[in-house]
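Predict the structure of Activator 1 subunit 5.
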Amino acid sequence: MSTKEYPTTDRNNPNLPWVEKYRPKQLDELISHKDIISTIDKFVKEDRLPHLLFYGPPGTGKTSTILAVAKQIYSPKEFNSMVLELNASDDRGIGIVRGQILSFASTRTIFKSGYKIVILDEADAMTRDAQNALRRVIEKFTENTRFCIICNYLSKIIPALQSRCTRFRFGPLGTDQMVPRLQHVIQQEQCNVTEDGMKALVTLANGDMRKALNILQSTHMAHDVVNEDNVYTCVGHPLRRDIENIINWVLNENFTSAYNNILEMKTEKGLALQDILTEVHTYVHRLDLPINVKIHLLDKMAEVEHRLASGTNEKIQLSSLIAAFQVARDLIVQET
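Done. Here is the predicted structure for Activator 1 subunit 5.
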């Protein structure tokens, strides 16, 4: 494997976001999905790379994997002429498929035998017309071009494109995979991270390595110590003790005090009702409540969440959330 550095990401550049600074450069640097990596590595070594379709949640290594493959196949000089990368920020309508992609795929490589690679990142944002046009391009130029389609939602890719590619699903990363990588970055950047800070990073990231690194970098720049409180404050997410207080207020206080207390906390800490609702929902699952009360609460919270997604007034929805808990409290009293 080549150990040359590619000019696009200089690791010594202090202004570079850590996400790019520590992006894996080679296949053996990738920290997860070993079965997928070994399969693709075998394809590359045997020179039998098919068209690829990577799908899964953000920050799980889809783009890093194909870039590492491309850097393994081509030298730094060849890279720009042999790889075409287009993502959602580029115009990828039917005109681009018939123009830029078609002309790149159709031109032969004079000095190097082998194939070019076209990387279509965030392909679920492409129109159906563009995907249909791409179908013919993929078929026609298979001899000298390989396509790698990357998306978050497989259902947004038309079946005709799916059938032309070898599919790989990139699942969210596990804690055991994320922690060693985060520790490597912490060591390199000399961050002061506490144990609860590390736990908070992994919890908030939800298996998204990019998100974990972004939170780590912003917390490190804003605070001297990366601990649980600072991490949660930096992303504007409610702390565990805030959620415990909220549950205590809505179940034990009267409506007015609960409403005023939560509103004051929201204003003081800059919390969004959506984030509070997500955490309260998780907390309710852990509470020992009669099943009919729990069903009532979950149903009401789902309604509030749906209304919030439609852009309704947060204060009115907060009242609705508190009301659901007050009704639940009365139901518990009736049962006992």
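The first helix runs from residue 18 to 21.
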